[in-house]
């Protein structure tokens, strides 16, 4: 992660607080999602895409990303215009990715299913015919597009996810808004933090098995799923690791909390994917090592640092474009006789290339434009006119000493920078 240099004296050289360990974790989490979707999820959604030389069925990458994101919320939340800065980095790239995926999906599915349209409107029209196929693809509609642009897909079963990977964006934005709300009112203090954290684990599980059952009214399902209550424990884990790394939580308490969160995660899935939960637990140990231990700045990592840093910088863009567009590419290659290995290599490469383009052409320019405009409204210039290349979930520094008794977590977070 890129950091702002500091100096102890006016004569001292600038010293970077960059830690490569967080870049490694970010890249590992994102590309675990990419590989899992290419080799495993693709054949669930589209059985004709089976046959890859290997498959990664463990689903832990997206959960790891949310934990890391929550950790760095604690590090960065005291900064000026924190919430606006986050939204300016996330939302424009997301909106462009939704629009691009919708248009490409409409074109591709029209070809795959042999659709024809009465009014000739392939972009929004309803098909009147198609070619019979054993594996028809879903054709996204204008209704789906609106729901995805507004990020309300989880609130109603009438919306279809244009790309199923998008589920993390509404979750993060809700979490960021809640964090900003609590921070501004100093409601989260060192004394009541354990109550807040444990409620994030216990309350959703209780609601899952008492109210949000399979036969529950739709409005209950909509509220539970729309607020992503089955995921909030992930943010609790990120906060708990930050508290532990800064001396505000005992090691035994963190271990107990992580164990409870893992049980809750498995419970929300009705204990149907325990191997993924175990894999996620292993990743959490690595996150703890990065948060509380020395940086992973060893010789082999140092030689790979430029590539790792570059991939970490485009990881959000990669995440946004890798799944549905990758499936479309894989199906197109299948139709012309490409081997499974060729389809894997092409889908992986596409994710990196499109992720880089989205970052370079949309995410960073939009972030720069929006943050400069916001600063201008208050008669100030941003601290830096060039947006940082680090991912949105990464911060400049991760250290802070324990707070004095009664000091709020919000204030302590502000003082850690």
UniProtKB/TrEMBL annotation:
The keyword Lyase does not apply. Keywords: Membrane, Transmembrane, Transmembrane helix. Pfam families: Acyl_transf_3. It comes from the Bacteria. Residues 405-417 have a biased composition (Polar residues). The keyword Thylakoid does not apply. Residues 20-359 form the Acyltransferase domain. Residues 376-417 are annotated as: Disordered. The chain crosses the membrane at residues 20-38, 58-78, 90-112, 164-183, 195-211, 223-244, 251-271, 277-296, 308-329, 341-359. This is Peptidoglycan/LPS O-acetylase OafA/YrhL. It comes from Kibdelosporangium persicum.
């Amino acid at each position: 992660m890129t950091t702002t240099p500091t100096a102890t004296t006016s004569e001292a050289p600038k010293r970077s607080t960059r830690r490569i360990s967080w870049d490694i974790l970010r890249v590992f989490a994102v590309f675990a999602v990419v590989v899992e979707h290419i080799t495993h999820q693709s054949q669930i959604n589209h059985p004709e895409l089976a046959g890859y030389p290997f498959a990664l069925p463990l689903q832990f990458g997206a959960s790891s990303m949310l934990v890391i994101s929550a950790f760095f919320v604690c590090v960065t939340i005291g900064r000026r215009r924190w919430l606006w800065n986050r939204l300016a980095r996330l939302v424009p790239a997301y909106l462009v990715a939704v629009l691009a995926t919708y248009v490409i999906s409409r074109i591709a599915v029209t070809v795959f299913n042999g659709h024809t349209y009465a009014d000739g409107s392939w972009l929004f029209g309803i098909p009147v015919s198609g070619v019979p196929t054993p594996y028809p693809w879903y054709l996204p509609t204008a209704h789906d597009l609106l729901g995805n642009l507004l990020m309300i897909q989880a609130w109603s079963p009438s919306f279809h996810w244009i790309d199923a990977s998008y589920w993390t964006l509404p979750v993060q934005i809700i979490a960021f808004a809640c964090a900003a709300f609590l921070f501004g009112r100093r409601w989260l203090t060192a004394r009541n933090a354990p109550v807040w954290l444990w409620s994030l684990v216990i309350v959703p599980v209780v609601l899952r098995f008492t109210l949000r059952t399979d036969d529950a009214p739709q409005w209950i399902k909509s509220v539970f799923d729309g607020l992503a209550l089955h995921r909030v424990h992930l943010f609790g884990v990120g906060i708990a690791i930050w508290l532990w790394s800064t001396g505000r939580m005992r090691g035994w308490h963190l271990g107990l909390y992580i164990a409870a969160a893992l049980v809750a995660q498995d419970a929300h899935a009705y204990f149907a994917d325990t191997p993924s939960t175990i894999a996620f637990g292993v990743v959490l140990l690595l996150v703890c090592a990065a948060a509380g231990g020395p940086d992973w700045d060893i010789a082999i990592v140092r030689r790979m640092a430029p590539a790792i840093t570059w991939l970490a910088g485009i990881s959000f863009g990669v995440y946004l474009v890798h799944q549905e567009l990758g499936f479309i590419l894989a199906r197109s290659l299948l139709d012309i006789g490409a081997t499974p290995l060729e389809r894997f290599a092409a889908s992986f490469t596409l994710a990196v290339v499109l992720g880089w383009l989205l970052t370079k052409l949309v995410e960073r320019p939009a972030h720069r434009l929006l943050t400069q405009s916001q600063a201008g409204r208050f008669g100030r210039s941003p601290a830096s006119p060039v947006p940082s290349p680090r991912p949105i979930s990464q911060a400049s520094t991760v250290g802070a000493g324990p707070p004095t008794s009664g000091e709020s977590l919000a204030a302590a977070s502000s003082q850690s920078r």
